[in-house]
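Our preliminary data section would be incomplete without showing what the modeling component actually yields. Below, a chain of 264 amino acids is followed by its predicted structure, encoded as tokens that our downstream tools consume directly.
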Amino acid sequence: MNIHFKNIELLETLQKATLVEIEVGSALYGVKNADSDTDMLCIYVPSYNKLHSFLDLYHTLQYKDEASNTDYIFEDVYTFIQNILSGDSSIYFEALHTETLKNSVLGYLYENRTDFYNYNIVKAYAGFCKRDRKHLIPSISEREQAKRLSHIDRGVLFAEGILKKDLQINHPQIKERLEYFKTLNFKEKASEADILLEKAENIRKQVTQMLEQKKIFRVMETPKQKKLDNFLCELSKTEIYLSKQAEYMDLELFYEAMENGVNY
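Predicted structure:
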């Protein structure tokens, strides 16, 4: 869950700790337009006190820059990886495939991105399709209907790409299909969505069978987990990592979320 904050001091602390900043969302899929928000994923080095806190720090920090209509999503490098492996964040998974990540200190993750092609993430995409089908209703705008349908279409496309180990995040089909969806009336959109949902359900059944037959890993192959940990260990010794790690970060928002949950 995202914790929204407005504290400038905390923002500056997180910006100084950031290892790489990646534009995600519509820009990643090649469908960004004048009406689109800008979403920036900032992967940062956790402060010493955060790294050693008793808290289960799974929440994400989000800052909205109203002037530029930009959302900054801050995630520490360890939680970033954990949420990909668990299937909890398709956005983080998609960020693995960017040139920005490739050319950063975290380039190892890009080079080994197929190691993260697991049961959890395929099942997550299939689940997102079901969620977005429920939200495809007549009362929302035609633009939002097309957007919801495009989400379902993209979920199926990405799940198929993962299983084939041939995933293209900015696949031209995404934009082409979105434009096509805009030409449909609601009944036609609903029909397309139901066809896609059936595909998603078949993918879910397929990947479950693959897991049972040990043809796909739930999380990651054990030797590759070890390699990933070795990479992170070596990263933590580098000059750039150490220069980014603050001694202290204010964790009050995390304490409040632990006690009271997250308010939106």
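The first helix runs from residue 8 to 17. The CA atoms of residues 96 and 113 lie 6 Å apart. Preliminary results of this kind motivate Aim 1 of the renewal.
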